[in-house]
Amino acid sequence: RREPLALINLKKKNEETGEEELASRLDHCKAKATRHIFLIRHSQYHLDGRADKDRTLTPLGREQAELTGRRLASLGLKFDQIIHSSMTRATETTEIISKHLPGVKKISTDLLREGAPIEPDPPVSHWKPEAVQYYEDGARIEAAFRNFIHRADAKQEEDSYEIFVCHANVIRYIVCRALQFPPEGWLRLSLNNGSITHLVIRPNGRVALRALGDTGFMPPDKITRT
């Protein structure tokens, strides 16, 4: 959903109507609504699981998801959809959250699965995936950013409110890209389990960050970052 002028072939502009036709065509390409993107990190899960299907939510993780669901419901917004990572911990978090948002459709996608988006700068000693992982995961996570984080479609008349349930690395990378910060700095951000990050995308393409990793709605003894 790029700048409207970039979507028009100026070479085909009618020479007789000139600027008047251009203005009309631009109006048909301009976004009119604001998109509210709520990025939710999955709840705490069992780290000792060997396969993804074994990495289910812990009892505390289920409590966290309940708290996140209640918080989202308390906002009184008409959510349009919940798009979630296909990984077990994100799917389970989504199922619990969705109980508090009846009628909101759920969509699973592999694009939002956890991974290594880009080599962090400065590097860290405790986490060094193989270089090939950055190429494989990075391309997918960048595709997720381009696919989901953009201004509203020109046909959208009303503001929308969408929830994305995924993973810390994915959310941190998306935030950096959306705000035009160097994406290599993604690992400097820290997100709690079940936290809410709120991005706003205006019709003109401007992006604002209203909340980053908010867990103020959770009691202190329920907060984790595993």
Automatic annotation (TrEMBL):
Family in the record: Belongs to the phosphoglycerate mutase family. BPG-dependent PGAM subfamily.
Protein name: Serine/threonine-protein phosphatase PGAM5, mitochondrial
Gene name of the encoded protein: Pgam5
EC primary class: hydrolase
Domain of life according to the entry: Eukaryota
Organism: Pheucticus melanocephalus (Black-headed grosbeak)
Reactions mediated catalytically: O-phospho-L-threonyl-[protein] + H2O = L-threonyl-[protein] + phosphate; O-phospho-L-seryl-[protein] + H2O = L-seryl-[protein] + phosphate
InterPro entries referenced in this protein's UniProt entry, alphabetically: His_Pase_superF_clade-1, His_PPase_superfam, Mito_Ser/Thr_phosphatase
Lineage summary: Eukaryota, Metazoa, Chordata, Craniata, Vertebrata
GO biological process: positive regulation of mitochondrial fission; programmed cell death
EC assignment: 3.1.3.16
Gene Ontology molecular-function annotations: protein serine/threonine phosphatase activity
Record keywords, A-Z: Hydrolase, Membrane, Mitochondrion, Mitochondrion outer membrane, Necrosis
A GO cellular component entry from the record: mitochondrial outer membrane
UniProt KW Electron transport keyword: no
Localization terms from the record: Mitochondrion outer membrane
